[in-house]
Amino acid sequence: MKRFFMRRSTLVVAATLFILGLAILLFEVGQYQVISMLMVIVACIPIYYRYERKKLNIKELVLIAILTTTAVLGRFLFYMIPAITPMTAIIIISGICMGAEIGFLVGSLSAVTSNMLFGQGPWTPFQMFSWGLIGLIAGLPWIRRVLSKNYWFLVLYGILAGIFFSFFMDVWTVLSIDRYFSWTRYVALLVTALPYTISYCFANAFFSCLLLRAIQTRLQRILIKYDIK
């Protein structure tokens, strides 16, 4: 078993180096859109590999699937209202209740799963990374303690998460136009999207405060009942 993990870790390192090498070659020919997508994929590899190495618990996997489904359902139910969705709030709460790794997994899996309904594309890895990072940071030990006890900090984190997601995804939008990054175009996009960014930040803060206790209570009961650690 130890040899198996060593062999698999070697393959992960080799794949990562290959992708980075490919990104360097593409940089010389100006393929910045492809480069950015490859870099985002590389950033997602360590957390998935670390979680994969752990002893798998079927109960925990089912719980992750339920949280991911809940987040996707939240995005689907509010898709008619621009920039208003409880999906990010559910990802944040998943990190607070279950920790950084599960927060990242719920965030990234929610992105790729919900895009089966809303459309997959080169933007999917960007969404996976940004939503995953939002869940991961919310699940860091000292941050999750603060967020679970203080609604003001939870509101602040929801706002910051909305700003981060919008700013990060606008990088993809700029690159998707002609594969080159332009600061002028980027700032113009930020200004144009400001009403949506404000709505998104408000939705994150509102739904995080509204759903935290309800989801937290139910998760605690499930964790105790089924002895999930």
Question: How would you concisely characterize the structure shown here?
Answer:
This protein is 85% helix and 0% strand.
Assign a percent range to the helix content: over 70%
CATH C-level: Mainly Alpha
Question: In this structure, how is the largest beta sheet organized?
Answer: none
Uncertain regions spanning at least 5 consecutive residues: 1-6
**Structural classification:** mainly alpha
Average pLDDT for all residues: 79
Domain module count: 1
Could you characterize the architecture of this molecule?
This is ECF transporter S component. The protein is mainly alpha-helical. The chain has a single domain (57-225), classed as Arp2/3 complex 21 kDa subunit ARPC3 (Orthogonal Bundle). The protein is 85% helix and 0% strand. The protein contains 10 helices and no strands. The chain has helices at 2-28, 32-53, 58-77, 87-98, 100-118, 124-138, 141-149, 151-178, 183-192, 194-225. The longest helix has 32 residues, at 194-225. The protein starts with a helix and ends with a helix.
Structural descriptors:
disordered N terminus; 85% helix; mainly alpha; 229 residues; transmembrane helix; single chain; ECF_trnsprt_substrate-spec; globular; Arp2/3 complex 21 kDa subunit ARPC3; transmembrane transporter activity
Secondary structure layout plus pairing:
Layout: H1 2-28, H2 32-53, H3 58-77, H4 87-98, H5 100-118, H6 124-138, H7 141-149, H8 151-178, H9 183-192, H10 194-225
Helix pairs in contact: 1-2, 2-6, 3-4, 3-5, 4-5, 4-6, 4-10, 5-6, 6-8, 7-8, 8-9, 8-10
Keywords: Membrane, Transmembrane, Transmembrane helix
Pfam family, one: ECF_trnsprt
GO molecular function, one term: transmembrane transporter activity
